[in-house]
Amino acid sequence: MGKVVMYSTVSVDGFIADENDQPGPLFDWLINGDVPLDESGVVKVSQPSYDHTRTYWDRIGVTIAGRRVFDLTDGWDGKPPGGIDHVVVVTHRPAPEGWDPGAPFHFVSGVEEAMAKAQELAGDRVVEVAAGDVGGQMLAAGLVDEVRMDVAPVVLGSGKRYFGSVHAQHLLEDPDVMIQGNRVLHLSYQVRR
């Protein structure tokens, strides 16, 4: 099985979006460099951010996200983001009406079912878990191996928390990756077992 990584860009005060689900300036680091991060050429980052992020993205086999993210992105028009092979959506609702059943999206009702499906699909590749409520539930259930965050120099004040509604203490190891890019600090922590 591949490693399970909880991931997102986050403000220095711990939010992944504002109260209206808008990231605001959190993603400025994705447009202020001169190295294209993907084939679109729209996303351009600094060389250190490229070296760190591209290597990680290339290892991802499956992303797990909640229904809120799926709805906000309009299901990425049926194409998983960033060249990822599959997306597992945690939801209590069925796929949207008219959804292409051939699209590589899998709708499941809980985090344990999502993790089992994701690991089956990913094989030895990384299972990425989107931060927020689903990511926090996965962390609380002991299903996350690594917490990875791109910390933007932004204070949002309130909004959607990186760890969702987790209220219990969870210990992480010291950061094993610390890379400074333009308008971002890339951090990675192993989850203490």
From TrEMBL:
Domain Bacterial bifunctional deaminase-reductase C-terminal residues, every copy: 111-171
Lineage, uppermost ranks: Bacteria, Bacillati, Actinomycetota, Actinomycetes, Pseudonocardiales
Name the UniProt record assigns to this protein: Dihydrofolate reductase family protein
One Pfam family cited in the UniProt record for this chain: RibD_C
Top-level taxon: Bacteria
Organism listed in the record: Allokutzneria multivorans
InterPro entries given in the database record: DHFR-like_dom_sf, RibDG_C, Riboflavin_Biosynth_HTPR
SUPFAM superfamilies registered for this protein in UniProt: Dihydrofolate reductase-like (SSF53597)
